[in-house]
Fold this sequence. Notes:
eight-stranded mixed β-sheet
Amino acid sequence: MPSTPKHISILKETRDADRRVILLPDAVRRFVADGFDVAVEAGAGAGLDIGDHDYRAAGARIVDTAEAWGSGRYIVKYRYPSEAEWRHFRPDTHLCAWFYPGETRALTEELCRRGVTAYTYEFFRTEDGHFPLMAPDSEISGRLAVLEAAHLLLNVEGGSGVLLAHVPGARRARVVVIGHGNAGGAAARTAAALGAEVTVLGRRADALRRFATTMPADVTCELNTPEALERLVPEADLVVGAILISTYDTPVMVPPELVARMRPGSVVVDITCGYGAGYLPSASTVVRWGKPVPRRHGVAFVKNDVMPMAVHQSCAEANSVNMTPHLLALGNAIFDPARPDPVSAAGCFVADGRVIHPVILHDYAVLDGQAAE
């Protein structure tokens, strides 16, 4: 039996005027039905036009910031805490967010120092190797990559004047998608639906064959080789980078000299948004919504690590539905050790005052090695 009452706190977002919230009232109803005491920070849903009364009607208690952080062991939010929130960290707390710990090392070290057990959504992993909590944001980013590129290709935006949506008599726009996970698949389907000529590149032949069966018949799938990149990238109106992860030791895949051969006014969108100098080095600077898009070699570069924020309503709805069963399973595992959940356990990266996840340990070792050179 659980040793303590089950409790979850749902926090308001504080970073970059983010209007999302991690769990909506329908999710609260499921937690309440499962025996959880649910506390929601006042105003958490305001950016979605969800009032505190909507959460109360679902069975939650509305609390102030201090109580939301301090009243229980299990705390969830959408994005990693801002530095102003670090003062709320307490030992014996289980905190969940999109942490991206490979690039938020100071935060990770603070979590260790304060004795917090931390989980990052991007590492939740099923036995068959899938990352279930990444699906909604990845699909949204893939679709937005194509829509944003369609805008940047307009000549009034400095683009080449190519329409991604096909018009009879004009040549079809050429789109290259590197990667065929949730993000790459969404980008390819969106571009194909508009009528573009789409080629998807992937590393593993078996996985690429399976992926091809899910694509429209006119989407071409090829192995990602230097020869394929040399042939396809210079002729592309849009290149979408959507590999699973790009970290500090990821090698360069699309070098600047290859980008320089693209037509002026073309677009590159990097939705991997990893860290380090590899993969798409010409687009290494993250540029958020509302800021000018940089152009290099006459090519527009979009690298925006918060693309789903632009559609906060759709994003919050999709994520709340997708995350609820996994966060329920984690909550039950926290309060009842007899109910372990291996999917969420794979997302734990800080415990007992130290970093425990092998990917993050590897990232920090690479960083420390580079600093020593």
